[in-house]
Amino acid sequence: MKFRQHVLLPLFASSLMLLPFAASTAAAASTASAQKAAPKKKAKKAAVRKPVRKSAAAPKIDYQGKQVDLAQWESVSLFADDMVRRHGYGREEIDALIAKVRFIESAVQLVKPMPAGKPKNWQVYQSRFVEPIRINAGVRFWNANADLLARAESEYGVPAEIIVGIIGVETIYGRDTGRFRVMDVLATLAFAYPETPNREARMAFFRSELENTLLLARKFNTDPFSLQGSFAGAIGMPQFMPGNILKLGVDFDRDGAVDVRDSAADAIGSVANFLVEHGWRRDQPGELAYPARVRAEGGWEKFINAGLSASNTQEELAQAGITTQAPLPAGEKFGLVDLQNGFEPTEYWLGSNNFFAITQYNRSFFYAMSVINLGRAVKLARGA
Ligand SMILES: [Ca+2]
């Protein structure tokens, strides 16, 4: 299994995530995914009585944080020793960097799991991403980058509409890339992660991403404190974690550096490369997913939450009572995708290998299906 660099998608999206251990994506805790749909009806009612305080529903986010003496902490000191020993930094150099880090309480709050709330609702989730503002921005992005998208499609075999779907869902094409200093949030989460059952694993992940941030800055000769991102340290248009920029980032405009924040070319190439490295197949026949029906008698439930891969044969699925109206491409395997709709009936789909490659970007069926639908909507709007 490949090491997953994705971060927990905690705040608002967590109640919508399909999988419990949402150790999400390259995209990690993307700003876009964390946006909360405003409770419209309530706001309207309130407006009748008095002017609505628009920000009332959103928590106040402190991007600046506060000065703390991290150098006092043993875990920080061990990290510094490690950077000196394994990567040849000077101890003074690391100490000077650590001294500049600010503690971001907002990041700690934002990674905490949300209390169980309303049931997951695919239609509500999707309506936040497949909507006119994002579609129009997608048309502009596609038009502005048509040659790059075509080149990525030919070099990586990933259709333009999938790349457009991902960058749109992540950040509305670079509009919401996050306003935290990556060094601050990663250090905060690496050394002061909140008490959760997976705390140790998450801290190890963020320590490794803090290390990657320093290596990234050194590699491209930039100030690590100039890097900005989400509360979980995801950077740029595609919300890549620093480790993914190092490992999977592509200098698609060939200017000598991977810059997923300011170069649409690098963002496009990096997203395509990410998908290929996570199993996307250029030659896959048929659709990414097929609407499916499950028989009333049951027998198919074992295929729910059975992992993020298309690993079931068509015979297995049919025998368990899962069928599609459209014929499936011969020999291809699939996985069952359930899209829960609150108190309405759940939608079922059979997801292909490439569908599940998208779930490696963010470990959620809702996410992958929204990417596909946004990309398709942009393509349609552009063609019209
Ligand atoms: Ca570049």
Low-confidence region ranges: 1-55
Tell me the helix content.
Answer: 40-55%
Bound small-molecule species: calcium ion
Subunit arrangement of the protein? single chain
Which radius of gyration do the C-alpha atoms yield?
Answer: 21 Å
- Rounded mean pLDDT is 87
Strand content: 5-15%
What general form does the structure show? Answer: globular
Termini Cα gap = 42 Å
Read across the widest sheet, the strand sequence of neighbours is 6-5-8-7
Largest sheet: 4 strands, antiparallel
Report the order of strands and helices: HHEHHEHHHHHEHHEHHEHEEEHH
- Based on helices, strands and strand pairing, what is the structural class? alpha+beta
**Quick one: how many beta strands?**
8
How many helical elements? 16
Q: What's the helix and strand layout?
A:
Blueprint: H1 31-34, H2 40-49, E1 66-67, H3 74-87, H4 91-100, E2 102-103, H5 105-111, H6 122-129, H7 132-144, H8 146-156, H9 160-171, E3 180-181, H10 182-191, H11 199-219, E4 228-229, H12 242-248, H13 264-277, E5 289-294, H14 314-319, E6 322-324, E7 335-341, E8 344-351, H15 353-359, H16 365-383
Antiparallel strand pairs: 1-2, 3-4, 5-6, 5-8, 7-8
Helix pairs in contact: 3-4, 6-16, 7-9, 7-16, 8-13, 9-13, 9-16, 10-11, 11-12, 15-16
The structure holds calcium ion.
Would you summarize the structure shown here?
The chain is an alpha+beta fold and 384 residues long.
What does this structure look like?
By secondary structure, the protein is α+β, with helices and mostly antiparallel strands. It has a domain at 289-351. Helix content is 45%, strand content 8%. The protein has 16 helices and eight strands. The strands form three sheets. It has a four-stranded antiparallel sheet. A two-stranded antiparallel sheet has the order 1-2. The protein has a two-stranded antiparallel sheet with strand order 3-4. A hairpin with a 2-residue loop joins strand 7 and strand 8 (344-351). Helix 3 (74-87) packs across helix 4 (91-100) and helix 10 (182-191) runs antiparallel to helix 11. The longest helix has 21 residues, at 199-219. The chain is globular, with a radius of gyration of 21 Å. Residues 1-55 have low confidence and may be disordered. Bound molecules: calcium ion. Calcium ion is lined by residues 251, 253, 255, 257-259, 263, 266.
